[in-house]
Write a structure and sequence with these properties.
This protein is an alpha/beta fold. It has 8 helices and 5 strands. The chain folds into 2 domains: about 80 residues, no CATH class; about 110 residues, Ribonuclease H-like superfamily/Ribonuclease H (Nucleotidyltransferase, domain 5). A hairpin with a 2-residue loop joins strand 1 and strand 2. The protein starts with 13 loop residues before the first helix and ends with a helix.
């Protein structure tokens, strides 16, 4: 059984810590904007403290959030996006399913078959099963890695078919601009892991929903967030 999040030796109540972390990862806000929003509510806390809260508690929250159950009928859309960190190119390899749910992300310094193989192997281990199909762009490394790791899985390689993965980059790109880039590969990996976990929780499935259904979905997501953070009333 997962142990509850410990807030020992923290001056601020757990509700404030969790709320600050939620604001930062849920919305396109900088740390200074989160600081200002808390100040408006009479909570005086520095942006650097909020950054430390995100680094310390973010991974714990993400591990406690319910994940989508994998299915052998899932279709994995894979793509990689370049992110420059301190003048050096890194590649964020990302995988989403047919509903746009982020399955995994991994920062790597290479864009080759070895990196693609690592991504596929990690995905299979994390999901516990192979997909029905994988869809990628035209990068040849995907095909070479797929033949080594999952030779029986169907592979479609076409840029036009992979819009779901490419579109899933957009929220992250928006956040990258807001926070003016990342300081290290490790900070990028930590941020994306938490950012995608929160986004998966709050963004509704890609289907037609009434306003009332959307409202219920967000209330349920908020309740699950509070349960993961251990701040239920």
């Amino acid at each position: 059984m997962t142990k509850p999040v410990s807030y020992k030796r923290h001056r601020f109540p757990p509700q404030i810590v969790a709320h600050a972390v939620w604001l930062y990862f849920r919305f396109p806000l900088s740390l200074r904007l989160v600081e200002e929003m808390l100040l408006e509510r009479g909570i005086v806390v520095s942006y650097e403290t909020i950054r430390r809260w995100g680094k310390k508690f973010g991974p714990d929250y993400a591990r406690r959030l319910r994940r989508k159950r994998p299915s052998p009928y899932d279709i994995w859309h894979l793509d990689e996006v370049v992110i420059t960190i301190v003048g050096r190119k890194h590649w964020l390899w990302r995988a989403v399913d047919q509903d746009g749910y982020v399955l995994d992300e991994i920062v790597q310094s290479q864009r080759n078959t070895k990196a693609a193989k690592r991504m596929l192997t990690r995905l299979m281990r994390k999901q516990g099963m192979m997909p029905k199909r994988i869809i990628t762009g035209k990068l040849p490394s995907y095909g070479a890695a797929r033949r080594q790791v999952m030779p029986r899985v169907e592979h479609r390689s076409h840029k036009g078919l992979n819009n779901r993965a490419e579109n899933s980059h957009l929220p992250l790109r928006k956040r990258e601009r807001m926070i003016q880039g990342f300081r290290s590969a490790g900070s990028l990996q930590r941020f994306t892991s938490m950012f995608s976990a929160v986004r998966n929780l709050f963004v509704p499935p890609r289907c037609h929903r009434s306003g009332f259904a959307m409202h219920i979905h967000r209330l349920q997501a908020m309740a699950e967030w509070k349960a993961a953070a251990g701040v239920l009333a």
